[in-house]
TrEMBL record:
GO biological process, one term: cobalamin biosynthetic process
Keyword set includes Disulfide bond: no
Protein name (Swiss-Prot/TrEMBL): Phosphoribosylaminoimidazole-succinocarboxamide synthase
HAMAP family: SAICAR_synth (MF_00137)
Gene from which the chain derives: purC
Length: 237
């Protein structure tokens, strides 16, 4: 597999072309950001930790029958993925009240949400990823009703798999976001799944083991990510 030119550099990952038009290389960098990029920092080992974490989760989801863009991990910080036509709509499931939901609705942080909530956000940094609905997505051509229905179905399938996985490690999957794209006309899970894009709390103490440690200045960010990995069985190479 030949790595070619950089196609895109996001806040924490870079995307490279390969000699296969259907495959890309994701490079997980040590960069961390919060508040739409207003706060940026480099955290040692972060790229390696998130690359390994993402590979482990994607393989678990594939075994559960959920289609993903993940092909294989290439190195400490790089993975090979399918090239998707990305849908600019993020799917968010919340199992426990935290973050933006608490701010918007004034509900108590830590309240269990039964059933879990499902929300859609437009992926647009300039607009701070505004919340949208199915009607807006359809009207503006961001996603069709059929695509949205499949994305919602897959998002809840992910929830069933990962809630159990993290529970076995003594962790609560509080909430998470997913991104999807099209590959040969099929809806496929893209981007990544790591503590950067979800909230994970200790089930007993409610200690935070996710990127809120960076957002809230709690420290020990990468150590927390590594602790999650140990609890769910991600071993070192």
């Amino acid at each position: 597999m030949e790595k070619r030119q950089e196609l895109y550099a996001g806040k924490a990952k870079s995307v490279f072309a390969t000699d296969d038009p259907d495959l890309l290389i994701l490079n997980f960098r040590d960069d961390t950001s919060a508040f739409d990029g207003e706060r940026m920092e480099s955290l040692e080992r972060k790229g390696m930790v998130n690359n390994r974490f993402n590979a482990f989760i994607m393989e678990k989801l594939q075994l559960a029958g959920i289609p993903t863009h993940f092909e294989r991990r290439l190195s400490d910080t790089e993975s090979l993925v399918k090239k998707l036509e990305m849908i600019p709509v993020e799917c968010v499931v919340r199992n426990v009240a935290a973050g933006g939901l608490v701010k918007r609705l004034g509900v108590e942080e830590g309240r269990e949400l039964t059933p879990p909530t499902f929300e859609l956000f437009l992926k647009n940094d300039a607009l701070h990823d505004p919340m949208i609905n199915e009607s807006l997505a359809d009207t503006f051509g961001w996603a069709t009703p059929a695509q949205l229905a499949e994305m919602k179905s897959l998002t809840f399938k992910v929830n069933a798999v990962l809630k159990q996985l993290f529970a076995e490690g003594g962790l609560l999957l509080v909430d998470y976001k997913l991104e999807f794209g099209l590959f040969n006309g099929e809806i496929v899970l893209g981007d990544e799944f790591s503590p950067d894009g979800c909230r994970l709390w200790d089930a007993d103490t409610r200690e935070k083991f996710d990127k809120d440690r960076f957002r809230q200045g709690l420290g020990g960010v990468i150590e927390a990510y590594e602790e999650v990995g140990r609890r769910i069985g991600i071993g070192a190479d």
